[in-house]
Automatic annotation (TrEMBL):
Protein family per UniProt: Belongs to the trans-sulfuration enzymes family.
Membrane spanning residue stretches: none
Record-linked InterPro entries: Cys/Met-Metab_PyrdxlP-dep_enz, PyrdxlP-dep_Trfase, PyrdxlP-dep_Trfase_small, Trans-sulfuration_enzymes
Biological process annotations from GO: transsulfuration
Protein name, entry field: Cystathionine gamma-synthase
UniProt keyword terms in alphabetical order: Pyridoxal phosphate
Entry's Gene Ontology molecular function annotations: cystathionine gamma-synthase activity; pyridoxal phosphate binding
Annotated source species: Fusarium mexicanum
Listed cofactors: pyridoxal 5'-phosphate
């Protein structure tokens, strides 16, 4: 969300000097990235795009907390994963800034593959990874990272849910995002009544 316009990308690493791991991390980073450069025009665009970052983050955080309610009690969704929810919240709260939010990313674990696919296919939002956009995007990230047999086996061994869709919530009107999610869930409900929904 830092860039906001998805027209430039960049990154940084900040190592807490108070961390007991500071020296090891700092040395490892410095040895691997001896010199780092950024093109001046990229830096200018990043700076301009990030001027209202705080406001955008707060809006997206609020929309995310509200949007997750749509899925909380839906019978097609087994779990909603987000730092504001147990069990994730226990660890997150220890590190969250006093007035910080929980982020604009959450994941939906669906009951089965067919339901997850049907939700994703009927969700009328952009699909793909989020690289600093201000609009809502969905991605079946576990499936995209494990498309061959060995990687799928690792997913099973790690206990990662396969029927999962990650949502990056953007700055659109919350009502608009809600309507799109509810429409996709409506299609899922119809699909689940059909014979092909249990795979």
């Amino acid at each position: 969300m830092f860039s906001g316009a998805a027209n430039v990308t960049g990154g940084s690493v900040i190592v807490n000097p108070n961390s007991p791991h500071y020296d090891a991390l700092h040395d490892a980073i410095r040895s691997r990235y001896d010199s780092v450069s950024c093109f001046p025009k990229d830096t200018s665009v990043l700076r301009a795009n990030s001027m209202n970052l705080g406001e955008r983050v707060k809006r997206a955080d609020a929309s995310t907390l509200d949007l997750m309610k749509v899925f909380t009690d839906h019978n097609a969704v087994v779990r909603v994963i987000h730092p504001s929810r147990v069990p994730e919240s226990r660890n997150y709260e220890r590190h969250r800034r006093r007035d910080g939010g929980y982020g604009n990313v959450f994941s939906l674990v669906f009951r089965n593959r067919g339901t997850a696919e049907h939700f994703y296919d009927n969700l009328d939002i952009c699909k793909g990874a989020s690289f600093g956009t201000n609009f809502t995007i969905a991605i079946p990230f576990v499936q995209l990272t494990a498309y061959d047999g060995d990687e799928r086996e690792n997913i099973d061994q790690l206990g990662l849910p396969k029927h999962i869709i990650r949502i990056f919530v953007g700055l659109e009107s919350p009502d608009r995002i809600h309507a799109k999610m509810e429409a996709a869930l409506g299609e899922v409900e119809t699909f689940e009544l059909s014979a092909g929904s249990e795979f």
